[in-house]
Amino acid sequence: MSDVARHEDGQDTRSGPEALRERRRAAHREARRVLSRAGFGKSLRERLTWLQEAGAEAYDLDEPADMYGDRIVEALEERVASLLGHEAAAFFPTGTMAQQVALRCWAGRTGDATVALHGLAHPEVHERQAFGRVSGLRPVRLTSESRQPTAAEVRDFEEPFGALMLELPLRDAGFLLPDWEELGELVDAAREREAVVHFDGARLWESTEHFGRPLDEIAGLADSVYVSFYKSLDGFGGAALAGPHSLVEEAKTWRHRYGGLAFQQFPTALSALIGLERELPRLPEYVRHAREVAAALREGLAGTRVPWARVHPGVPHTHEFQVWLPYAPEVLAEAAVRQAEETGTMLFAGGWQPGGPGLALTEVTVRSAGLQWTADDVRRAAREFAARLPEADDR
C-alpha cells in the first residue's frame, strides 16, 4: 500500500516511514528537553541571525568578503593548520572531495594508488565508490569487524598499499577510537611498509579526552589529516585538509580541478570559525557528560519491560555512541516520538536503523543541551521510553 493518501481536496496526507520521520523532526523542534540540538535543524532566519551575532566574536565582520579562497578562508586555513600542528591547510566544500584529493596526491608521490582502510570507513559505506570511480584509487579492506584495525593487520596485509587511511573515530562501528598506544602502533606499522598515513578525522576534534593528548599531538602522527566543520563544530558545512606545504599546494590545484574553488564561501568559513571558538573548547565536557548519560541509560532501561539493552561502547570514546535494543526500528521510532509528543522530553532524537531481525540501533549525541540532564533525568526518561514499548511477548 502507498505511504501517500490523497484527500478529496487534492492535499496529500502521508503515513508510514515518511510521516514518522516528519513527526520526529517536529517533536525534536518542540521538545523542551533534548540531549542535542544541532544548528542544522533550525530555520534559515535562526541560522542567519546566529551567523551575524556569533560571527562578530570570531572574525572582523567589517573585513571584505572572500573571493576564490582568500581573506576569511585563508584565515580559517591558517587557524586549522596551527590547531592540528601541520604546516598548511586547505579549505574544501566537502570531506568527500578533500579526502579524494589528499589520497590522489599521495598516490602520485608513492606510485601506489592502493589505499588500505576499514570496511566500515566512510568512503566504503557512504560515498558510492567515489575513490575508484572518480579518483582512480583502489581501496582494500584491512577488516570489516566493528572495531579499529590492529597493527598486526596493517603489518601483515597480503598486498602492497601506498596509504593507510584511519577513520578517527570510526563512526559506523560506534564512534570507536583505538587507545593512544594502539594508534602509535598502527602508524608505525604503516611506516614499516613505507606507506603514508592519512587520518579521516571528520570528528577528530572529539578525540582529545579519550587520548589524553592535545589535537596537534594526535594529528601530528599522520602525514595528512582531514577534519569536518559541521559534524562536531556545528558549522554550515565544509572541511579542511592539513599536511605539508607541498601537499597542500598540490591539493589546492586538484581542488580547483574538482570544482571545489567556489567564488565566495564566507558563510561556511565564518560558521567554522565560530565552531572553533565556541564548540571546540566544550567538546571534552560533552564527552565526559556523554559517559554519564550512557551509564544512566543502561541503568534506566534495566528492570523495565526491555529484555536487554546495549550501550556501545560501554564507556563512550566521544560524545556520541550507539544504543542497541531488541525491537524493530519502527517500534522504537514510534515510542521515541510518542515520548516527546506526550512529555516534551526527547531521549532518542535520531533515527533507528535495522541491526538484524528484531534488532535496531540508534546514535545518541550529547551537546550543550544535554549538559542540563542529570543522571536521574536520564534514568527517568529511559523508564518512560521503555513504558511505551510492547511487552517482550508482544513484539
How would you characterize the overall build of this protein?
With 395 residues, the chain is an alpha/beta fold. Helices cover 43% and strands 16% of the residues. The chain has 15 helices and 15 strands. It has helices spanning 16-30, 44-58, 72-84, 95-110, 122-126, 130-135, 151-155, 180-192, 208-211, 215-219, 245-257, 266-278, 283-301, 329-343, 375-387, and strands at 4-6, 12-14, 33-34, 88-92, 114-117, 138-141, 163-167, 196-201, 224-228, 239-243, 310-312, 320-325, 345-346, 353-356, 359-365. Strands 4-10-9-8-7-5-6 form a seven-stranded mixed sheet, sandwiched between helices. Strands 11-12-15-14 form a four-stranded antiparallel sheet, with helices on one face. The longest helix has 19 residues, at 283-301. The protein is globular and about 60 Å long. It starts with a strand and ends in an 8-residue tail after the last helix. Mean pLDDT is 95; it is low at 1-12.
Can I get a quick summary?
The protein has 395 residues and is α/β, with parallel strands linked by helices. It is built from 15 helices and 15 strands.
Strand-helix topology:
Elements: E1 4-6, E2 12-14, H1 16-30, E3 33-34, H2 44-58, H3 72-84, E4 88-92, H4 95-110, E5 114-117, H5 122-126, H6 130-135, E6 138-141, H7 151-155, E7 163-167, H8 180-192, E8 196-201, H9 208-211, H10 215-219, E9 224-228, E10 239-243, H11 245-257, H12 266-278, H13 283-301, E11 310-312, E12 320-325, H14 329-343, E13 345-346, E14 353-356, E15 359-365, H15 375-387
Parallel strand pairs: 3-13, 5-6, 5-7, 7-8, 8-9
Antiparallel strand pairs: 1-2, 4-10, 9-10, 11-12, 12-15, 14-15
Helix pairs in contact: 1-14, 2-12, 4-11, 13-15
